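User: My advisor asked me to double-check a structure prediction for G-protein coupled receptors family 1 profile domain-containing protein before group meeting. I don't want to rely on an old file, so could you generate it fresh from this sequence?
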Amino acid sequence: MMAAMTASQMNLSAGHEENGSFYDDKDESDYRDDYSFLQEHAGLRQSLNMMSLIVYSLAFFLGVIGNALVIWVTGFKMKKTVNTVWFLNLAVADFLFTAFLPLSVTYTALDFHWPFGTFMCKLNTTISFLNMFSSVYILMVISVDRCVSVVWPVWAQNHRNVRKASCVSLCVWLLALVLSAPCFIFRDTGPSFHSEDSISCFNNFAFSEDYETPAVVQLRLFRHQTMTIVRFLLGFFVPFSVIVFCYAVIIHRLRRNRTLASQSSRTFKIIAAIIVTFFLCWAPFHIMGVIELVTHMRENVSETFDNIVAIGLPIATSLAFLNSCLNPILYVFMGQDFKDKVRKSILHVLESAFQEDVSRSYTNSMVTMRSKDKSVSDAEDSSELQTALHLKDMTSQGNFNRDQFRK
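Assistant: Sure, here is a fresh prediction for G-protein coupled receptors family 1 profile domain-containing protein from the sequence you gave:
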């Protein structure tokens, strides 16, 4: 999931590689501004790096297992409905992101040395952005869908179906892919500012190693500004404005209709909890991104703002990472239907696993018993046949003797 995350965003370490993550918005020249601060606060840097490693690892284990479970239940165990289509796509987005988290863990553990090559650098960041955009737009679509269902229930009843929901989901993925494409274009690898032996994954906005020519520097700044503004507007402000408007309409309508409120309460609470969680996880990150951009645009750099960005962005980024493993937890705690399906499915799997050997031995014993019965039956049949033939021979012989005696 991710928006550009500056070198200081992910982990505070000295130099390019120590500051950066693959999600950062800074290019090579920006890391020099943080170098002195990071050197002076080595203890804080190490603490933030350790925090990042713990959060990434936790998000990976909980996110992969939890979202895989959601995909399994909503995709194969529950009846296909419009709501299950939304939650399935949301789980797929989170699963993709968390599945790539071991790369982030490795990058951080290696003191921000990227050993996976340029293509994986581009792909990993693109997946992160894809998660962020797809998640927020799926939440927006869910909010619009709930609003339409509450305000125009008859129309929704006649027009809402799984096929249309799947088409809308496909459109969301295509839009998210388009908005994530610049990450694949601008992401690059190269020797870090701090050490020539270390390879960093960073944004090369000018496709150049020239950091002195004014025109090139201006191009870097323009593209940096554009990406940050587009990400904030299209990845946060616009979709969340739509979400807030939809829920304001829903709440107003539910207050006027208590019957409708009681019928929609459970689904409404689950979706509201997911949206609030997404907002709390992502709002600090986007706010810190805007502060970081404003700091870059100022001629007189404020040391206070630099320190806020250097400390705040790693924390905000770690919080954003956690969002991908929280949705399955919300489903389990708040969704009774989902909880029941999970319990039944897991019990079925465990029962099948534990009873496999017993069933197999039982089947084999039954086959053996049937074979024995068949053998006994065949033997009995054979014995009876031989007796019958013997009696027949004796009868025939007796008849022959009688005929001979009469003569």
